[in-house]
Amino acid sequence: MAEPRKNILTQVDLCLKYSLSKEQRSISSKIISNYINKIDTLVYAVCGAGKTELSFGVIKHVLEHGGQVGFALPRRDVVIELYWRLKEAFPNNIVTAVYGQHTSKLTGDIIVLTTHQLYRYEKYFDLIVMDEIDAFPYKGDDVLNAMFVRARRGPCVLMSATPSDAVIKEYSKSNHDIVELRTRFHKKDIPVPIIKLDSKFFQRAFILKKMKEWNKEGKKCFIFASTIEECESLYSFIHPFFKDGEYVHSKRVDRPEVIKRFKDGKTWYLVTTSVLERGVTIKNLQVVVYGADVEGIYDKATLIQIAGRAGRKIDAPDGDVFFLGEKKTKSMQEAVDEIKYCNTYL
Q: What does the alpha-carbon distance between residue 261 and residue 70 come to, in Å, rounded to a whole number?
């Protein structure tokens, strides 16, 4: 169990490579005001809105007043990515990452950790920022939620592009606040998914056709499959046609290395399960969901998150997104409708 440090006033330098938009600055100020007034905040913002950066202002405020900050996420991959972003944003503060097999150091000014590691921190954090509250394994897990509550000693900031109705209802009560951001920071439309219905054979043929186009244009792509078995099968089908790619899923031991090779440009496509539905920003990324009609795997929230991988960069705000299936499901149509609705805010 980690021992809370004594609160020490400190000089904090927040370094961002770009300026926040007017809307982002307004929301950041509101989050700080809520924190000062001991109000918990839900940040309800579309994929690519810059949710993480919205929390930097309140993190700076807490650190300047000697507080302890925790930033919790359900998935290890995203913890690792966020660790580097926070080190860059707060270069003069100690940022520590805590996740499975990486627990030798448990203290720091900012502790970025998986939700499973919260059990180490009893009444520890003056501020907890919790991103991806709707993601597995945190979503619907009473034990993880209890650990989150136990680790707090101050207000929290929850963040999601797809919060559940229950969370929205809870944060509509007194002593809670919901702030919304329905546009991306670059003020361009979120790419609207195209639904294409066909047999599995023709879905695979369509994927090859689009990959040929994207390869010629120098664009990268994610191809999502519903299960580990489907992921490996689809990769085995694609690989003879396009060699410079990989597959990734939760049971692949070298997953971080595979993802790094992709980010470094050594591969240009990944066949993946939902492990890459969140927390990844890649320039010129195109997205295909193979078998998007598999219910129980691809609900509305998951499809919105997957579609949100495309068009995230200011210098590459567009991208193709395809939902492939043998039938159109309610979740597929609702995801498309929600994205179109968010685009009306521009």
A: 29
